[in-house]
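Anyone opening a protein record will find just a pair of labelled lines. With that in mind, the following record should read easily:
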Amino acid sequence: MKNKKNLARLTSFLAITFFGIIFTSYTVFANNILPDISINVGGNTEGGVASSIQLIVLFTVLTLAPSIIIMLTSFTRIIISLHFLRNALGTQQVPPNQVLIGIALFLTIFIMSPTIKQINENAFTPYSQGEISQQQFIDESMKPIREFMFTQVSDKDLKLFTELSGIESYDNIEDVPSSVLIPSFILGEITKGFIIGFIIYIPFIVIDMVVSSVLMAMGMMMLPPALISAPFKIIFFIMIDGWNLIIGSIVKTFTG
């Protein structure tokens, strides 16, 4: 039980640190605030060991930041859906991976903005003003994150991991530890991403089938159907305003 509590606290700490980085970066660039930074390297001083440990923890958290954004936000569902869209269009590396990741990242910030705002108002601002303790800061910061994940997680996935962790039942969301909620959320996001990808594929598969049938009827069996169907799929995607439709539909799966 003690190990489970320590794991939950570590998970909460990593999550809060990540959202703190996002919020701090947004505040700095939005208000054109560039803090003065100085690094002093010297001998052993009072508190030097503690500062070194804090620096190691900071760099460790920054290293884990990509994993944290995948675990706790809408990023996974979005990037999987966009990857399926590119494959369905048959455009190979267009848009490139960097563009897809950038789209997914900024859509994630857009979707998670209410959560980040709650963390700022209920945790970051009171903590920076010395009104609450560090433990209260972690607890208040985790509340909106957990609420977001609970709105997206399915009962089936949550039941699976609660049974695997030995939790027989729970009365409310506070009884479910973050170490159980996070993998349940991730599993659900992957599943929903594949469902969206399947739906995206359907109209493009129809176009491929029509083009293949026409080519076979004309006796052009040596001509690759993908070479002919690619322009038709692209013009079809443009005519239906595909990017607007796809992006809007993905975002609505979180807000609808």
Observations:
- The radius of gyration is 24 Å.
